[in-house]
């Protein structure tokens, strides 16, 4: 399960309110994209959901239970970082195993999950290599593998492809979409790239200055943008 509800959630850093109170529901199994220009609060919103930042007011619920004060590791969510967050001195296998080791999962179960993740991500032949011996795309797959083995209620991605070149980005987009098809797990994906949002999302959340301008399917936003900002950002002719 992975239904996430934000109820009047706000965030201030000191005196600066970067996210005024907002409501948002992410349905179980949905691929939701937070999109908007740089500095609009996408990462902050994702970090609030992950528990990496405390909310200033409001409530976060995960599958109905109040998660507002639950520490990140106990929320059952997995954040996928950019591939440079891998441990360079560890093999792919050890990088993927790391979160399970921290969670005290036994060796046989670790191996089972690593094999399944490696198969899903085409990494089976690379488990004994170190990140430095992999391509950018393979490294990004390892970062995703590290999230998969936690069997999370939801995956949280913060611009995971921004340090890949354009051609690789297209391929990885497709791989992440396919992974979602296969796992049917809730995914929240942050990007400032409209094309990424339009091609990957079930539901797009358009943000501007910490405010949700519109929530809808790619087609909704394209055909019925609620204002000029959304129309301009999404590239709608209206
Ligand atoms: P985005 O991910 O959409 O580019 P962010 O969520 O990173 O935007 O930032 C939203 C706003 O919050 C920005 O104005 C940024 O400067 C501010 N901000 C983010 N993190 C902090 C922080 N730790 N302390 C103070 N201000 C922050
Ligand atoms: Mg960001």
Concise overview:
By secondary structure, this protein is α/β, with parallel strands linked by helices. The protein has helices at 42-50, 92-102, 107-120, 136-148, 166-183, 194-200, 218-223, 228-234, and strands at residues 4-13, 16-26, 31-35, 57-62, 65-66, 77-80, 154-158, 186-191, 203-208, 211-216. The structure holds adenosine-5'-diphosphate (ADP) and magnesium ion.
Write structural notes for this entry:
There is one protein chain. This protein is α/β, with parallel strands linked by helices and 238 residues long. The chain contains 8 helices and 10 strands. The strands form 2 sheets. A 6-stranded mixed beta sheet has the order 6-7-8-3-9-10, sandwiched between helices. Strands 2-1-4-5 form a 4-stranded antiparallel beta sheet, covered by helices on one side. A hairpin with a 2-residue loop joins strand 4 and strand 5. The longest helix has 18 residues. The site of adenosine-5'-diphosphate (ADP) has 10 residues, from helix 1.
Low-confidence stretches: none
> Roughly what is the average pLDDT, rounded to an integer?
94
Strand content: 25-35%
Coarse morphology: globular
From the N-terminal CA to the C-terminal CA, the straight-line distance is 37 Å
Structural class: alpha/beta
Tell me about the largest β-sheet: 6 strands, mixed
SSE map:
Blueprint: E1 4-13, E2 16-26, E3 31-35, H1 42-50, E4 57-62, E5 65-66, E6 77-80, H2 92-102, H3 107-120, H4 136-148, E7 154-158, H5 166-183, E8 186-191, H6 194-200, E9 203-208, E10 211-216, H7 218-223, H8 228-234
Parallel strand pairs: 3-8, 3-9, 6-7, 7-8
Antiparallel strand pairs: 1-2, 1-4, 4-5, 9-10
Helix pairs in contact: 2-3, 2-4, 3-4
């Amino acid at each position: 399960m992975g239904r996430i509800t934000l109820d009047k959630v706000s965030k201030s850093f000191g005196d600066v309110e970067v996210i005024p109170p907002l409501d948002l529901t992410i349905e179980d199994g949905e691929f939701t994209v937070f999109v908007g220009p740089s500095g609009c609060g996408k990462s902050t919103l994702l970090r609030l959901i992950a528990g990496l930042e405390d909310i200033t007011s409001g409530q976060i619920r995960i599958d109905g239970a109040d998660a507002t004060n639950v520490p990140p590791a106990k929320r059952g969510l997995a954040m996928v970082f950019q591939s440079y967050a891998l441990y360079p001195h560890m093999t792919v296998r050890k990088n993927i195993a790391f979160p399970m080791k921290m969670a005290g999962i036994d060796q046989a179960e670790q191996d089972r999950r690593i094999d399944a993740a490696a198969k899903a991500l085409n990494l089976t032949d690379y488990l004994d290599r170190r990140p430095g011996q992999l391509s950018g795309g393979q490294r990004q797959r390892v970062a995703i593998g590290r999230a998969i083995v936690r069997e999370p209620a939801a995956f949280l991605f913060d611009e995971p492809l921004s340090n890949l070149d354009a051609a690789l980005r297209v391929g990885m987009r497709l791989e992440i979409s396919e992974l979602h098809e296969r796992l049917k797990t809730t995914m929240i994906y942050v990007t400032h790239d409209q094309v990424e949002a339009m091609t990957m999302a079930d539901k797009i959340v358009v943000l501007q200055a910490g405010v949700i301008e519109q929530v809808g399917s790619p087609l909704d936003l394209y055909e019925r943008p609620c204002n000029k900002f959304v129309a301009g950002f999404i590239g709608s002719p209206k």
